[in-house]
Design goal:
The chain is mainly α. 61% of the residues lie in helices and 0% in strands.
Length: 179
């Protein structure tokens, strides 16, 4: 998971892939939000909404960074990842296995880890120094996301803390949990 079919060569190609990863992750978390809202699972819907917002902000930051570039139009099947979905996208079938916010955090952790590994791979294999540097920055950001989710998992009691209480305390995706 998160592996590449070949190296990312240009800055434009890098941005096209990075944007696809963030856009698809935000869209998937929005789908999860709707799914849980429709079922009255407010805590899970809220967690998904926060994850979608985090990914959406990241997407917007990337868009602003490359607004002066002409990005290649890459067909869904032509992206450099081995799986059908981008590395950061939680699998739709996992949606049906989520029973608690903790399960959702575990799925989010796996998705963030795959995204991190994807960017680490680019940082190691891209022929362009600029692309390698950009990928290293993205890998560091995904590492931060991994850490946030790990901290939330560590803080979250295995039997199930109330996610609403965590959010009210300022703890959640994009925040640092108390140690």
């Amino acid at each position: 998971m998160g592996a590449m079919l070949g190296p990312i060569v240009t800055v434009e190609e890098f941005y096209a892939h990075a944007l696809a990863i963030e856009r698809e992750a935000a869209e998937r978390y929005e789908e999860f939000t709707t799914y849980f809202e429709d079922r009255g699972e407010d805590a899970l819907a809220g967690l998904c909404r926060h994850l979608a917002e985090l990914e959406g902000r990241h997407f917007n930051e990337l868009m602003a960074s490359c607004d002066n570039l002409e990005l290649p139009a890459i067909a869904n099947g032509d992206y450099r990842w081995l799986d059908g979905d981008s590395p950061e996208v939680p699998a739709r079938e996992m949606l049906y296995r989520i029973a608690t916010p903790r399960h959702l955090l575990e799925i989010a952790l796996a998705a963030e880890w795959r995204a991190r590994e994807f960017f680490v791979g680019i940082a190691r294999t891209a022929p362009s120094v600029t692309v390698r540097e950009m990928a290293s920055v993205m890998a560091a950001e995904e590492t931060e996301h991994v850490q946030w989710v790990r901290e939330a998992l560590a803080y979250h009691v295995a039997s199930g803390a109330h996610w609403d209480e965590l959010l009210a305390a300022g703890i959640g995706p994009g925040t640092v949990c108390p140690t």
